[in-house]
Design a protein that fits this description.
single chain; about 270 residues; mainly alpha; disordered N terminus
Length: about 270
């Protein structure tokens, strides 16, 4: 019986340090766990610290860190809730607004994301990340004038900013200014020669302009850079077919099948190659 009591006492003593820790010690352990990818333990420790001292001025940062941990665990709704709690304490934190805004965007809640990005821009008008996300939302809404303003602010601050320059080229294309769009893509491709996506964009633009021969050149180069791109392989086959180059088209379709495109999905095109 004495041995049983002794074991219970030892077990209780082993638990005492965790209960005796200060708020700062728990926070320090939580941060170490988060940095060391021990996410489950980090979550538990952040929540423990928040319960220990609910009115501590540092809790905004703890909620924010908790949100980041939950985001990394794929628990988006809980992460948004944690960032919201942080913003209730520190409503003018641009980092927290950006974090919550991007999560809203991931969930397709564009209107809520838009509010967060606008708040960031109100606080820091030249914030590139918020401008870029807001321009994307404007593009989705077809509010092209507003999107162009945001992209121009970014390029004004960073003239070589790739994503903003691509956005401006896309705007030109959507507004029917195809020559200006191609000029912008020409410059981008000259700087980023190994970016297959830019070549595909220019190929699509040339198809829209009625120049399939030019599109073929870019699609072939894109596939040289990324030979496993099945969708672009199909697109190249379609362009070959439109140019009556049936052997090349059939070869492209066969390659697409080998890359995982179902043969049944290409049967109609393949029949036209004979």
């Amino acid at each position: 019986m004495k041995k049983i009591f002794l074991l219970i006492f030892i077990s209780c003593c082993a638990l005492l340090p965790s209960y005796g820790q200060t708020y700062n010690e728990v926070v320090e352990r939580a941060m170490k766990c988060a940095l060391g990818d021990s996410l489950v333990q980090a979550e538990q420790l952040f929540r423990q610290a928040l319960k220990m001292d609910p009115n501590n001025a540092r809790n905004a940062l703890l909620f924010s860190n908790l949100g980041t941990v939950l985001k990394r665990m794929g628990r988006t709704d809980e992460a948004i809730e944690a960032y919201t709690m942080a913003l209730n304490i520190t409503p003018y934190s641009t980092a927290m607004l950006l974090n919550r805004g991007t999560l809203y965007l991931d969930k397709g809640l564009d209107s809520k994301a838009y509010v967060d990005f606008c708040n960031v821009i109100d606080l820091i008008p030249e914030n590139i990340e918020a401008r870029l996300y807001r321009a994307y939302i404007y593009m989705q809404r077809r509010e092209y004038k507003e999107a162009r303003i945001d992209y121009n602010v970014i390029v004004g601050k960073e003239p070589s900013h790739k994503a903003a320059r691509i956005g401006l080229a896309m705007l030109d294309q959507r507004e029917g200014n195809l020559t200006a769009a191609r000029d912008k893509l020409d410059l981008l491709i000259g700087e980023f020669k190994d970016d297959a996506s830019l070549l595909i964009m220019r190929a699509n633009l040339d198809l829209e302009r009625g120049y399939p021969e030019s599109a073929v050149i870019d699609l072939e180069e894109a596939l040289r850079l990324n030979p496993e791109d099945a969708e672009t392989t199909v697109q190249l086959g379609d362009v070959y077919l439109s140019l009556k180059e049936k052997v090349k088209a059939l070869n492209a379709y066969e390659k697409a099948v080998s890359l995982g495109i179902p043969r049944s999905a290409l049967m109609e095109q393949m029949k036209k190659c004979k």
